[in-house]
Amino acid sequence: MEDKRISFLTEDYKQKIAYLTAHFTRMWTRFNIFVTIEMGLIGSKYLWQGAELTPPALFIAGVAFSLLWLLLGTEDRYLVYHYRKQIVQVGNALAKAYGLPTEQKGDKGFDFYQPVGWVDEHKMVAWDKSVGVRFQIFSTTKMAVYVPMIVLAFWIGSWAYYSPKLEVEKPVKVESVGQVK
To answer: Which of 13, 72, 73, 129 could disulfide-link to 145, CB 3.0 to 4.6 Å?
Structure first.
């Protein structure tokens, strides 16, 4: 019975790792697509400024794509967090099934099993620390949320700056029937 449990947990662990890896691929493909769309919109804003292109439509498109990008980025971040959590749970169950310790020793790491994504910075040598740094606040999965926020702020700021300068057709004032001013 224990062999079936270990076999099941091993296969489950492999599938969860494969799914997380595939999710990262999908996530960064989406990120690159949105970077391309936004750069095209931003470029057109500067290249065709003053042309017959309706600027409000450009700002609306920029805000709409930024909001969609932000929504997908937050969803991706949420899913990555939960996929990693599930992998740690299965990894711990598998380690326990083999009779291995899984307790974390403070911030110094784990006895034996280390979950996927665990970075033990205390074991990095001085050379590694000088060429490789990890800032938790700017992790790559958080960039999927921060970059769309920055681009959205750019579009809103641009709209606020340019909206008073945009020519808006003023309504015709009608004083009485037959007289137009």
So the answer is: 73
- CB proximity list for 116: less than 8 A, separation 6 or greater: 17, 20, 84, 87, 88, 91
Per the DSSP assignment, residues forming a β-bridge with 110 are 104
**How many Cα atoms within 13 Å fall on the side-chain side of residue 153?**
6
What is the DSSP code (8-state) at residue 176? E
Angstrom distance (rounded) from CA 21 to CA 26: 9
Q: Residue 121 carries which DSSP code?
A: G
Tokens for 42, please give them: 């931003």
Rounded Cα gap, residues 174 and 177, in angstroms: 7
- The model's pLDDT over 73-94, given as tens digits with 9 standing for 90+, comes to 999 999 999 998 898 889 888 8
What is the residue-wise DSSP string for 93-133?
HHHHHTT----B-TTS-BSS---TT---GGG--HHHHHH--
CB count within 10 Å of CB 9 equals: 19
CA angle 166, 167, 171 (to 5 degrees): 135
Joined tokens for residue 34:
């949105």
User: Which token pair is 159?
Assistant: 């709209």
The tokens describing 91, both together, are: 């990894």
Please name which of 88, 84, 90, 42 lies closest in space to residue 65, comparing C-alpha atoms.
42
Residue 150: φ, ψ to 5°: -65, -45
